[in-house]
Design brief:
Length: 85
Amino acid sequence: MATLAYTACAATALACAGLLLRAYARTGTRLLLWSGLCFVVLTVNNILLTVDLLVFPSVDLFLLRNLTALAGLSLLLYGLIWESR
């Protein structure tokens, strides 16, 4: 059951990233770019979660997972601040 939940989360984040980046390609709105990039990194984060907990449970990827989450949210925060000007 955990495999299904982790896979669904990664697939949802990937779908969101694809939709946001496709909308950016059509409209050119930069906030869509930053949001799409955030979701790309969050997809990587979800994949790392799956690898960490299910594939290699003896390997601790906690720090790497948290750094990818921080990177994704930093991209979004930077985009929100930059576009508010």
